[in-house]
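Listing S7. Sequence submitted for prediction.
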Amino acid sequence: MGYPRWMDYFAYTGIVLTVVQVALWVVLGSGDVMWLVLTGIAVLLIGVVFLVLPIVQFKRQGGVAEGGSYGNTTVLVSTGLYAIVRHPQYASLPMFSLALVLIVQHWSAVALGACSIALFYLAFHKADAMDVDENIDKFGDAYREYMERVPGWNPMVGVWRLVRRRTP
C-alpha cells in the first residue's frame, strides 16, 4: 500500500528539522539546566530503543520468513514495546526532537522541535489510519482488540494504559 506523497514530505521535513537540531547542539552545545540535559539524554536513549528494538522483536516474534524483511510479519506482536505503542518506530522520531529541545535549551531548537513533532504527528497519524484496514485484513478481530488497548504512537498514553491494565 502506498502512502500519499505529502505524508512522505511531512515526515522527511520533520527528519531534516531534527537533523538541524543536532547541528544546533554541535554549534551551541548543551543548555545550562543540567536536569533538562540529563532528561533529554534519557529521552534520546529511549528513542534509540524504540527505533531499533522493533526490528529484533518482529524478527523473533512476528513469524517473519527466514531472510525476509522484519516488516513482513505473519503473527500479531503485542508484547514488549508493542504493548505500549503499535508503532514504536514512529514514536522514536518525535522523541529525538523532544530530546534535542531538552538538551540544547535554545529558542531555535524549541521552534524546530515543535515544527518537527507537528509534522511527524500529521504524517504518522495518517499512516496509522491507513495501516488499520491492512492490519485488520491480516490479523482480524485480534487487531481490532489490540487497537482498543494500545495507542498508535503515544508512549505516555501507552504506558498509562499498560499500568492501568496490570493494576488490580
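Caption to Listing S7: primary sequence and predicted C-alpha cells for the chain studied. The mean pLDDT is 91. Residues 5-166 form one domain.
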